[in-house]
Design goal:
mainly alpha; 18 helices; globular
C-alpha cells in the first residue's frame, strides 16, 4: 500500500480515536483544580457562606479558565451531577411544607405571585433593552431555584455564566440581609449545621443511599441519552419528590456526595469563562448589583405588607419573601425561631412556580422581545437603519 494511503488511514484512525476518547485535559490540570476547589470550599465553609461547595468550585475553575488551560468536565459526569442535584433539592420538598402552604393558601399565593411577577417585569425590561445578552435577564432574575435556573437557561438563549453570577451573588446577598434581619430582631442565629468534617462524613444509611444513587444514575443516563440539558435535574427532582413523599424511598445524600455534585456543576460553569468573558461580566457588575438590590428591596416591601396586613412577625415575613436561597433561608429560620412552616411554604411554592413556568416564560419573553425589536428596527427612519 502506498505511503499516502497509510498516512490517510492513520489520520482517519487518529480522528476516530479522538472521538472515542475526547481530550478532557492534563492530569496535572485536574489535580490543581481539585486542590483549589477543596481549599476554597473549606475556607468558604469556615465563614458560613451559602452554597459554599458550588461557589468554591466556580471560583476554582476560573483559575485554569482565565489562563486558557484546556480542561472540561465529561458529559456523563455532568448529567449524573444534574440527576443527583435534583434528588438533593427534592429532599427539601416535604409534605409539611405543603401543609403549611395549604393552611395559608391566599397569603402564600399573593406573596409568591407578587415576587414572581415583579422579577418577570425586571427580566422583561432587561431583555427588551438588551442590557444583558439574550434572555439572560429573564433567567438571572428568576427568584429561586438558582441551580436549576442556571442549568436550564442555556437551552433558551441565555449566557449560563452571567446567569450563575446573578443567581449566586443574589443568594449570598439575600442570606447576608436575612442574617442581619435576624440580628435586628434580637435573635441569635446559631450555627445550624455541624462541623465541616461531620457534614462531609455523617453516619450513612446504605439502603436509602443506594436508592438515591440509583435514581440519580437512571435520570442522568436518561438525560445524557435524550440530551436533556437542565431537564435531567427536573426529571430527578419530580421523581424524587413523588417517591419520597409517598414513602417509597428516603433520599440520602451525604456531604461528600453533595460537594462532588456541586463541584462538577461549578466546574462546568466556571470552565466556560475565558479572559474576554470574565472582563465582560466584570463590566456588567454594577448593573447586576442594581438588579439584585431592586429584587431585595421589593421583597422587603412584600414582607412589610405581610407584617402589617396579616400580622406575620417581621422576621418570618422577610424570610418568606426574600428572593431565593431556600437552603440558606431554611438554616436561618430554623436557628432563629421563625415560623418555619410559613417561611418554607412560600419558599417552596415560589420555587415550584419558577421551575414550572421558567422555560415557558423565557420562550414567550424571547419571542416577544425579538418581535418588538424587529418592529422597532422596521419603524426606524431610513437614515438610522443599519
Amino acid at each position: 500500500m502506498p505511503w499516502s494511503a497509510w498516512a490517510g488511514t492513520i489520520a482517519v484512525t487518529e480522528g476516530a480515536m479522538k472521538k472515542v476518547r475526547p481530550d478532557y485535559g492534563r492530569p496535572s490540570a485536574w489535580a490543581e483544580l481539585i486542590f483549589l476547589t477543596l481549599l476554597l470550599v473549606f475556607l468558604l465553609e469556615q465563614v458560613e457562606l451559602p452554597a459554599a461547595p458550588l461557589m468554591g468550585a466556580i471560583a476554582a475553575a476560573l483559575f485554569p479558565a482565565l489562563r486558557e488551560v484546556k480542561i472540561r468536565v465529561p458529559a456523563a459526569l455532568f448529567f449524573a451531577a444534574q440527576g443527583m442535584l435534583g434528588c438533593i433539592v427534592a429532599r427539601s420538598l416535604s409534605l409539611s411544607a405543603l401543609h403549611g402552604m395549604l393552611d395559608n393558601l391566599p397569603l402564600v399565593l399573593s406573596a409568591v405571585l407578587a415576587v414572581v411577577v415583579f422579577s418577570l417585569a425586571i427580566g422583561w425590561f432587561v431583555t427588551m433593552r438588551q442590557i444583558l445578552p439574550g434572555t439572560t435577564g429573564i433567567w438571572g432574575t428568576s427568584p429561586g431555584a438558582a441551580a436549576i435556573m442556571t442549568l436550564m437557561c442555556e437551552a433558551f438563549g441565555a449566557d449560563m455564566r452571567l446567569v450563575a453570577l446573578m443567581q449566586y451573588l443574589r443568594v449570598i446577598l439575600v442570606a447576608g440581609v436575612a442574617t442581619l434581619a435576624a440580628r435586628m430582631a434580637d435573635v441569635t442565629v446559631l450555627a445550624a449545621h455541624r462541623s465541616f468534617a461531620d457534614f462531609l462524613f455523617p453516619p450513612l444509611d446504605w439502603p436509602p443511599f443506594a436508592q438515591t444513587a440509583l435514581l440519580a444514575a437512571i435520570c442522568g443516563f436518561g438525560g445524557l441519552w435524550l440530551r436533556l440539558t437542565g431537564g435531567t435535574m427536573l426529571l430527578s427532582l419530580f421523581a424524587g419528590t413523588l417517591l419520597q413523599n409517598f414513602g417509597l424511598m428516603r433520599i440520602e445524600a451525604p456531604g461528600w456526595l453533595q460537594v462532588c455534585t456541586y463541584a462538577l456543576i461549578g466546574w462546568t460553569i466556571g470552565l466556560r469563562f475565558n479572559r474576554a468573558a470574565f472582563l465582560y461580566a466584570w463590566r456588567l457588575m454594577p448593573k447586576i448589583l442594581f438588579l439584585i438590590w431592586l429584587m431585595i428591596t421589593f421583597s422587603g416591601g412584600i414582607a412589610a405588607l405581610l407584617h402589617f396586613g396579616a400580622g406575620i412577625d417581621p422576621l418570618s415575613a422577610y424570610l418568606a419573601a426574600c428572593p431565593g436561597g431556600m437552603d440558606s433561608v431554611a438554616i436561618i429560620a430554623a436557628a432563629s425561631g421563625a415560623d418555619m412552616g410559613f417561611v418554607m411554604a412560600i419558599q417552596t411554592a415560589r420555587m415550584a412556580v419558577v421551575i414550572l413556568t421558567g422555560p415557558a416564560l423565557a420562550r414567550l419573553a424571547t419571542a416577544r422581545a425579538r418581535n418588538r425589536l424587529k418592529n422597532f428596527a422596521n419603524d426606524a427612519p431610513a437614515d438610522r437603519k443599519p
